[in-house]
Amino acid sequence: MRTIEDEIKGVLTEELRGVPHLGPVSTALVSAISRVSAGEEQKDIRLIRRDGALDHVEKIAEADDPRHGIWLADVTAEQIGAAPGDRIVISGPARKKSTRVAGLYRYLPLDEPRPYWQGFGELIYRGTSDDTYPASFAIVPSDEYYKLTAGLGDFPDIRWEAPLEMPDPAMSEVVALVDALDRVAATVTASVERGELKVDRYSFEIGTLLELVRSTATERIESVTPVVDLLAVAGGLVALGVMAAAGFYLVRRRIVEARSLSARGIGPLAQGLRYGLEATIPAGIGTAAGVFLGFAVVRLVGPTNDLPLEAATSELPRVVLMAVIGLVTMAAGAAFAVRRAEKEIAEEGDTATERRALVVAMGFAVAGVAVAVILRNHLSDVEDIGLRDPMTMALPIGLILCASVVGAMALRLLLPQAGRLLRDRSPSLYLASRRLAGAPGMTQVLVTAGACALGVMLYGITVGSSVKVSTQAKAKLFVGSDFAAQTSSAQQPQGLSFPSTLVSAADGISAGDGFQQVTLVGVDPATFDGAAYWDSTFADVSLEELLGELSADGDPVPAASVGEPLSGPLNGGGTQVPLRVVETLDAFPGVSEDENAVVVTIDNFHEILKVIGSSISPPDQELWASGDPEMIERSLLENDVTLLRTVDTGVVLDTPGLQSMLWTLGVLGALGAAAGLIAMLGLFLYLQARHRDTVIASAITRRMGFSRTAEFTTSLAEILGAALISLGVATAAGLPVAALMHVQLDLRPTLPPDPLLVIPMMTIAATVAIVGVASAISAWRVQRSIDRADIAQVMRT
């Protein structure tokens, strides 16, 4: 007679036959939680029977006949004092049953992850909101499972599992597989409901964990899609602006030719079309290079390094369309430049001054509105995932743009004042300042574009670094340090190469009239300072002073309260323990924000438990350590320290909201850097393109006694001055906006410490160095073109 597990296994195997990427169906029987003991100490276990289970664990020790009895986790056996071959007692839902220990295996949460156990993750590993690990498995390798569970009065769950055999599935494959599994689930469920498939007394459920994968991935995609779309539009606008500037550059580079063609009757549109056709092949090469670099950047700073090529090729039609629009934009820019050359439009004048004043006023107005909106709406939301609202990205970019426009114009108005100060000190710098003050409008446009792009880059890097550092600090507050592990020993391990401290905690203690529940925390003053995380905002005194106050002798026991004020003495065992509160803390490592706690020294902790300990649960012992979590855990295991539960800041930081936010800000910084590089390159090329004006100015200055060194200094000061103006405005615009927004993007604003602002000094220094080197190269090229030019021929044209 076939059992129910064999019957349903056969049905599932048949239904899943046509579904790809799935392994053979396996069966497992999982019991409810029972209690196991070999003496007075009892621990929770969960009986399990699964084919091949012992082939997928690390065996530690075994009895003479390992096929009969149960296999316990080594941690559980150590806690109850059992060894292979010993008799143990299992207390089930209804009755008790005696059996023997067949062997010991490595506790699964401390063992290397194995694909065999992936479907049982919720029964093995601790959830992010759980304080302890689930009950350990007691593996029953034979048919004794049925006798054992029947004797305990247990009614086990039966699980059928088809493992996924697709190591790196694409999102489209996951969606298709989930849809196929949903159809199988609907078919099998219908058979159960119609009575065609007998399940006896069992309730039947069928589903797939891939649904969680799909929903999580979809949630992450939806969280960043609006902002990424906004960044894509911004990147497209930057590219079109660069193409328009390229049209201006081509005309300025060949200004004599453009004027000659105009004199022959060839109008701006025809010349613009010609420039557009000439640029078709270079634009195609640039587009291909952009696709390649964009693909590389996304793989570098994006959420995965294994981005499929199809993700890039699917966007090729949009890329080609943008390239065509870019060529049209460049042709239009060239036509406009030719038109300017024909009419010899002056760059200065009253109308230009009025336009500048209008733009400055509009910039201030838009900036004021943006600041008002940001201050009015606190954009952080604990329940939100990432930067779901595009306004969280659009407002800072708009604010930086306005600040860049205003800053560039303000500095240009100040250049004549600087020139007057330099007139008698450095003729070269004076001439450079005059050239910058009277530079054409395109120079100012490129300076402003570079300032905006570099400002966005600094904003993205600053906010991203600040959010990450702030969240790391909050994670350390939650964990207590970089790493925390619950241990079974109340003794501090010796000989460790990293700072560590032992912390004890007992919860569920009543205080005062009994309505206040507090957690009693015991710390070691000798080691706590070196291993625990501490911030000055936690208390009005330093950690050293706090530990000194807690270590003071006297009666009542000195203590520090966290959360609500302590309402009275601690109660338990029919007695009370009065405390003397020496400090009231805003926060304490390892204590959650909604928890009331009392902190004492470890010696006083044990003395208090001697009085009230009989009425509370045994305390937890945690080892906190500062340093690299992987190194710490490896070192503890090598020193034979039993770890019952581990948590580190990396686990806390690995959340969809934070990862989406950091990835989006990283992309924003990369986009700003790329746009800034293009704008700076365009600025250098445009200044070089003013060949005729530069040669004529050089002829005049040489008649005035200027040397080649002075000419080079003038060119370098002009180019470097324009670049530094752009970078200075970017810094002045990007950093204040980052200082405003990093507070608004705090994922946990109620949790100390306050958001930290991390200024990327290395990025700023590297940018200054790159700008300096590029300016020197550009000035050298200008000087070389002056030396090679025929001044008489240039003057004739």
Describe this protein with a few key phrases.
25 helices, 18 strands, 797 residues, globular, 4 domains, ten-stranded mixed sheet, single chain, alpha+beta
Molecular structure report:
By secondary structure, the protein is an alpha+beta fold. It has four domains: 26-161, no CATH class; 215-345, no CATH class; 348-479 and 649-797, no CATH class; 489-641, no CATH class. It has 25 helices and 18 strands. The strands form two sheets. Strands 9, 10, 11, 12, 13, 14, 15, 16, 17 and 18 form a ten-stranded mixed sheet that branches. Strands 1, 2, 3, 4, 5, 6, 7 and 8 form an eight-stranded mixed sheet that branches. Strand 1 (26-37) and strand 2 form a beta hairpin. The radius of gyration is 36 Å and the shape is globular. Mean pLDDT is 78; it is low at 345-351 and 378-386.
List the SSEs and their pairings.
Blueprint: H1 4-15, E1 26-37, E2 42-50, E3 59-62, E4 70-73, H2 74-80, E5 87-91, E6 96-105, H3 121-124, E7 136-139, H4 144-152, E8 157-161, H5 171-193, H6 210-253, H7 255-263, H8 268-278, H9 280-301, H10 310-313, H11 316-343, H12 350-376, H13 391-422, H14 427-437, H15 441-479, E9 483-487, E10 500-511, E11 516-523, H16 528-531, H17 543-550, E12 557-562, E13 570-572, E14 575-577, E15 579-585, E16 597-601, H18 602-612, E17 620-625, H19 629-638, E18 643-648, H20 649-653, H21 656-689, H22 691-703, H23 708-744, H24 761-788, H25 791-796
Parallel strand pairs: 2-7, 4-6, 11-16, 12-15
Antiparallel strand pairs: 1-2, 1-5, 1-8, 3-6, 5-6, 9-17, 9-18, 10-11, 10-13, 10-17, 12-16, 13-14
Helix pairs in contact: 5-6, 6-11, 6-21, 8-11, 9-11, 12-13, 13-14, 13-15, 13-23, 14-23, 15-21, 15-23, 21-24, 23-24
